[in-house]
Amino acid sequence: MGKSEAKASRRRFLRWVFFGAIGIAVPLAGESLAKVAFTVSPAAVGMQTPSAIFTTEGTEATFLRIKVEYFQMGQYVNLSEEYFSIQSPASVRDLATAVMMRHPSISSQMMNTMLILVNGTPAKASTSLKDNDEVDLIPLVAGG
Question: Which of 48, 55, 127, 144 is 20 to 30 A from 41 in CA distance terms?
Fold first, then answer.
């Protein structure tokens, strides 16, 4: 691994830590959210990002478990599928933002030109997501 690759890897890790800390700090910032209980469902054991429920005084925020499959994206992402946990209600736009944050090599320009399928059906950015949806990200390529 060259110096530039190590530096890029370190940057990605630091970005992940930074945004993870923000994701934890934001719900805890409000006075009304002082009593927060975090529980992980047993089904979340095999997930990279566990699905969770944050319980506060009389309110409940739920998270959706979304499977993302990457097609022909080996140069951008070193895996073919992964799971995301995003707060409900969520749209394809919200998931795209989460994907770009986790994988900085995928730019918003690239995301805007991809074919996105939700459970095998073409989707728009405003399409709503449900728990256990499968989202396929397929970059449009030209050549011949």
Answer: 127
73 φ/ψ sector (left φ>0, alpha ψ -120 to 50, else beta): alpha
Q: Which pLDDT score is estimated for 19?
A: 64
- Bridge partners for 69 per DSSP: 81, 136
Q: How many domains does the chain have?
A: 1
- Can you give the CATH number for the domain in which 70 is found? 3.10.20.30
Phi, psi of 29 (to 5 degrees): -70, -35
| Phi, psi (degrees; rounded to nearest 5) at 64 | -100, 140
What does pTM read for this prediction?
0.57
CA distance linking residue 2 with residue 108, whole number of Å: 27
Domain containing 119 equals 63-138
Exposed / middle / buried, residue 99 (Cβ in 10 Å: 0-12, 13-18, 19+): buried
Q: Is residue 29 part of a domain?
A: no
Give pLDDT tens digits for 90-126. Answer: 999 999 999 999 998 888 888 888 899 999 999 999 9
